[in-house]
Amino acid sequence: MRALVALLSPHRWKGKLAEAERLLRAETPPADLGAKLDAWLASPAWELRNAAVKLIARFRDEGRYLRLLGALADRSEAGIVRRNAAEAIAQLGLRTVLARTALVRALGDPYWEVRSEAAAGLAALFTPAEDLEAALLQALFARKRGHSTFRGEKLNVPFSELRLREANFEVRMALALALGHLGLSRAAFDALRALAGDDSWLVRSQAAVAIAHLAGRLPDLFPEARICIERVDRLSEGCVSYFIHREVLGFVLRAAAEGPAALTAERLGSRYLCPKAGWNRVRR
Amino acid sequence: MLYLLRHLEESFGPFRLFGYWSFRSMGAVVTALAVSLLIGPLVIRLLRRWGARDQGRAFGGLNVATKEGTPTMGGLLLLVSLFASCLLWCDLANQQVRIVLAAALYFGGIGAFDDILKIRHQSNERGLARHWKYAAQIAFGFLVGVLFLTAHSSPYGHEVAHTLVVPLWSKGLYLGWAYLLFVVVFMVLASNSVNLTDGLDGLAIVPAMLVAAVLAVFAFIVGNPDPAVPQKLLFRPLPGCDELVVFCAAFLGAGAGFLWFNCHPASVFMGDTGSLALGGILGTLALLVKQELVFFIAGGIFVVEAGSSFIQDYIGLKLLGRRIFFRAPYHHSLMHQGYSETKVTVRFWILSAIFAVMALATLKVR
Predict the structure, then answer these.
(1) Residue B76 lies in a domain
(2) How far is B310 from chain A, CA to nearest CA, in Å?
(3) End of a domain among A126, A144, A161?
């Protein structure tokens, strides 16, 4: 109903939206930013709430951090606002337990962009941890039979008994990236190996980078990781001016040839693909 | 103009050929194609020199950056070859031909104005405002509708002009003056749907050519000088429509000539000059042969593209505050999923051919 009211009266928000757009491009925050943000966060128009969420991240308004967490957790909130709330939480860079819990919970969000942003946010904010790895694997896989998830059983479920739960390729890409950053066990490697055989070349590409990234932290897995990367299907349906997938794989293999010490986050980070930037622009 | 040579049949027998639409159609295809191929490089060079270059838009696709700077406004090439061929081969005294040529000029003019604004401002976002575009399209729809429905200016009788022909149903739907409203909405939908489809090399022109071919078949049947032909297929005869076959042939030639330069990787984009003109021409053709609903079947790709944009923008983003597709129009969604441009384009061509066959099937299934 709130969305319908906002849709039927766009003229009411037009001026405020233009102002929000201006603020998003401004270098310094205006003196009354706080009052504006509070008013816009309470607006029935999701575009204004969305602008407020972006402005909180833009001007690093840590005082309204909880509002971001609230927006992310509220399933009745517009999907784009939830997505941008997840992104804003990562941009603010506060490594809190609340953020960790909210982002992990958002991995189960019904809207794919929120799941994708939550995975990327976890990768950006936190360091490898068992619970995060388990949450990512749970978001990615489900049991073939019986229970739909394998919560509680942690990582002891053999991969042969799992099926891919995540149907959206963009989220699988984000989960591969997150596992590359946060994985710390054989289970993460097995999951990435499964993603390296994905139907989408974008996911395969992302998984190859993530495997190399993981192998850089877990040298025991390096020989296996190298073979796995070499075996990634190079066929790419998307070739415009150059084969992005092949270029990424070539880079990863060259790095892998130098040994596990060369597989650092700094070196590999630029090779993760970023949906928002377009596939031919690497993640900054 | 060559049509007039048929009057000299008595002094030189073979001139009678210019009286046959079949001969003139072949001539129109060849002429439009030849003109396109001859002047194409020159037009592209001129566009490049004028600085008519595509500004690129951040769709998150694979190849946005690689397309930046390609000459745009290639619709001019399409329109010049179409007009050259029509002036040579069409009977310009025919009212239907004059209406559709006026539509081409009008929509091409709106598109050119839009393109010029974008080029001047160096931004794809700063062309003609959407509401002005709609206003111009509505004005044209209103004018054509009034022309159609007013007794002394209509090319058809009262009953025929006020009736919407429904595929698979031989009786049709008498709308009266409500048909005017339908015409306005139809013209806006037709021109915008082609405009939205024009996003990849060769994506809009081939489906447009297939729709023109389908409408040519309908024009041949309903405009056949022998009234028994349309009546046999349960259509009402529309005198004068047979001349539109020659126009459609010129359109096919001009389209093929444009595709020569627009196929991937494109040397020139049609810009709004071309896409709005294509939509305007096809919409007007469909109106003139009274096959508006067949346009939506034959141009199924245009419906999918416009529908996906509508669902994404109005139902998804405006109402629900979320995306329904990765990107819209739908071809951008496929590109986002990692499919190559060529694959998306060729698959859309295949679908267009299927839609065209489905539209032709409505000729028989009635």
Answers:
(1) yes
(2) 14
(3) A126
Pairwise CB contact (< 8 Å): B319 & A201: no
Is there a domain that residue B192 lies in? Answer: yes
| Residue range of the domain that includes B91 | 18-361
Average model confidence (pLDDT) for chain B? 89
Helix H segments across chain A? 2-8, 11-25, 33-41, 46-58, 65-73, 79-92, 97-106, 112-125, 130-140, 169-182, 186-195, 201-217, 222-230, 244-257, 265-268
Distance CA B105, CA B79 (A): 8
Find the CB nearest A78 among B58, B321, B343.
B321
Domain enclosing residue A54, as ranges = 1-126
Calpha distance B184→B288 (Å, rounded): 14
Question: Nearest Cβ partner of B322 from A4, A111, A169?
Answer: A111
B340, A275: Cβ pair inside 8 Å? no
Question: Chain B, 21-80: which have a CB under 8 Å from a chain A CB?
Answer: 58-66
Say if B64 falls within a structural domain. Answer: yes
Q: Which residues does residue A273 pair with via DSSP β-bridges, in sequence order? A: A282
Which of 288-347 (B) contact A at CB < 8 A?
Answer: 317-323, 326, 335-341, 343
Number of other CB atoms surrounding residue A32 within 10 Å: 9
Cβ <8 Å between A279 and B66: no
| Same domain for A185 and A81 | no
Q: How many domains does chain B have?
A: 1
Nearest Cα of chain A lies from the Cα of B343 at a distance, in angstroms, of 8
Claim to verify: residue A136 and residue A38 sit in the same structural domain: no
Q: What is the pLDDT of residues B83-136, one digit of tens each?
A: 999 999 999 999 999 999 999 999 999 999 999 998 888 877 788 888 899 999
Do A153 and A23 lie in one domain? The reply is no
Give residues with Cβ within 8 angstroms of A158, minimum separation 6. Answer: none
Distance CA B138, CA B76 (A): 23
Are A35 and A165 in a shared domain?
no
At A49, which CATH number? 1.25.10.10
> Model-level pTM greater than 0.90?
no
pLDDT top residue among B15 and B347: B347
Contacts of A4 in chain B (CB under 8 A): 319
**Domain boundary, last residue among A106, A126, A146:** A126
pLDDT of residue B301: 96
* Domain match, A283 and A192 both: yes
Name which of A196-200, B54-58, B69-73 the model is least confident about: B54-58
Question: Where is pLDDT greater, at A5 or A180?
Answer: A180
List the single residue in A with minimal CA-CA distance to B338.
A238
Tell me the shortest Cα–Cα distance from A174 to chain B, in angstroms: 14
**Contact residues on chain A for B324, CB-CB shorter than 8 A:** none
Same-domain pairing of A41 and A158: no
Asked if residue B366 belongs to a domain, the reply is: no
State pLDDT tens for residues B10-61: 777 777 777 788 899 999 999 999 999 999 999 999 999 888 887 765 544 4
pLDDT in tens, B178-231: 999 999 999 999 999 999 999 899 999 999 999 999 999 999 999 888 888 777
pLDDT for res B95: 92
Candidates A111, A169, A280; nearest CB to B62 = A280
Q: CA A135 to CA A101: how far, in whole Å?
A: 10
Give the number of beta-carbon pairs within 8 Å between A and B: 70
ipTM reported for the complex, 2 dp: 0.80
A157 and A215 fall within a common domain: yes
